[in-house]
Amino acid sequence: MLNATTFGRVDPSDLASLRDLLASSDPDRRLRPVGLQTIDIGEEMLERLPERVTAIRRKGPLVIVQDRTIIRRGSDDLKTAVCRLLEPLGELRVVALGTEGEPLHADSSALNATYDAVQAAGCVISVGSGTITDIAKDSTHRAGDLPLVVVQTAVSVNAFSDDMAVLLRHGVKRTVPSRWPDALLVDQDVVTSAPPAMNRAGYGELSAMFTAPADWYLASLAGADDSFHPSVVGLFRGYAEWYLGAADGIREAEPGATVDLARLMALSGMALGIAGRTAPLSGSEHLISHMLDMAAAARGTETAFHGAQVGVASVLVALVWRHVLAELEPGSLRDHVQPSRANVREAVYDAFSGLDEDGRAADECWHDVVAKLDRWEHAGLDLAESWPTHRKAISELLAEPAALVNALSRAGAPTRFGELTPAVDATTARWALANCHLMRDRFTVVDLAFIAGIWNDAFVDQILDEAAAIGAGL
Fold first, then answer.
1. C-alpha span between 78 and 72 (Å, rounded)
2. Residue 410 class from Cβ within 10 Å (0-12 exposed, 13-18 middle, 19+ buried)?
3. Is the confidence at residue 422, as pLDDT, over 50?
């Protein structure tokens, strides 16, 4: 197991050194190559936009993909500034998605409209949120991997620097293969001008670095995912000490802290890309957030920022891990009778059938969960035998729940579901936690607790009570 700080604080904009570092730590060539050509992070980076576009463009117009939200760069309008910089390069088209004042979703309507608009583009420039970026990545990928430059507008999610896209299918968020941007621009004035709640949500998103890698490692032990690679974890965990100490700077929107957060966020996206999956930074805490999104979509209500939800959920998952590491014994895995498929299927449909009239969300979830059950049948006994030898390695990937609460609170990020905007009621929050293992084909600590027979109403209530005692949870 690689010490999580071996790589130190990697500079994502120095792609040549980053590639050398990964190559030296991956002699078996298990990792995928970084597909980004350039990353620019810091002051006055927007001015590099014409240069980056010119370097990769093909024949055809430049197409800007954006939503209808006003985005600032200091006192200036960012979208106006982008057009001004690009107009001297030739024909320029702007595709504005969505309706002003309403949230934009990466659904079939937005995806198809963008795909139609980028046909024959010489280069596509996305300006906006993670959703806009995912839409641009998906549409340019389907159109033949058209040149794509991403102008990041907040430090909110890692979609800006990975090769995947989170899309809405049958009311369920799914992460699907997409493509790397060719160039990423992170301008200090732009990201520090973002709404503070967005950057604080990004800080919450990155709290997953203290829980998700443990889930990923566990999945490898359970035969559910053979992709675990310590170098992927080392890529971003070199920032662990910085993260826990930078909270005050994030709260105050200090330029230096915000830019460093952007560097860590860029590394987190690249980590997902080289691993070929979101698992390095998406475990139980993300499942809980996705559950909240599903509930909101079913009700037709707004959701809180994804990263803010992840931050709140990460504390709960850290508590779950603490119990599992302290209490789970090999005998409970060997001797416990795994729930039957019929019982698990019933649990899935009980959890999700109320989200839509035709049961498509439950069908989608059951399709994934049954695959997870199949793999456990073949690997469960091996994990039972090896569990004691892996406890220490897993514990090194985690953080104390109270330390996460302290950092999130100091950063001004929510630590309770009731502090999210909009607030999540206690019933919905408890539902999301209790049923998160029934949503996706991803083996996590909650699956382990479920299979061991300790994941029940009393256990969930205990986790929520312990969270409340340290200023988190409901």
1. 5
2. middle
3. yes
SS3 content of the chain, % helix, strand, coil (to 5): 60, 10, 30
Whether the model pTM is above 0.85: yes
Classify residue 357 by burial, with Cβ atoms within 10 Å: 0-12, 13-18, 19+: exposed
CA-angle at 168, arms to 163 and 174, nearest 5°: 50
> Has residue 5 got a pLDDT over 60?
no
DSSP type of residue 353: G
412: helix, coil or strand? coil
148-152/183-187 β-pairing: parallel
> Is 70 exceeded by the pLDDT of residue 147?
yes
Beta-bridge partners for 186:
41
User: How many other C-beta atoms can be found within 10 angstroms of the C-beta atom of residue 119?
Assistant: 12
Cα gap 112→168, rounded to integer Å? 13
Q: What is the 3-state secondary structure (H, E, C) of 156-214?
A: CCCHHHCCEEEEEECCEEEEEECCCCCEEEEEHHHHHCCCHHHHHHHHHHHHHHHCHHH
DSSP structural state of residue 410: H
Amino acid at site 425? D
How far, in Å, CA of 424 to CA of 440, rounded?
22
Residue 23 to residues 34, 162, 389: CA-CA distances in angstroms?
Answer: 11, 18, 28
pLDDT of 324 above 90:
yes
**Across-strand partners of 124?**
63, 148
Helix axes 306-327, 284-299, angle to 10 degrees: 130
Burial 202-223 (b: 16+ CB within 10 A, else e): bbbbbbbbbbbbbbbbbbbbbb
Encode pLDDT of 55-84 as tens digits: 999 999 999 999 999 999 999 999 999 999
Residue 51 backbone zone (phi > 0: left; psi -120 to 50: alpha; other: beta): alpha
Spatial contact of 289 and 310, defined as CB atoms under 8 Å apart: yes
What confidence score (pLDDT) does residue 112 get?
93
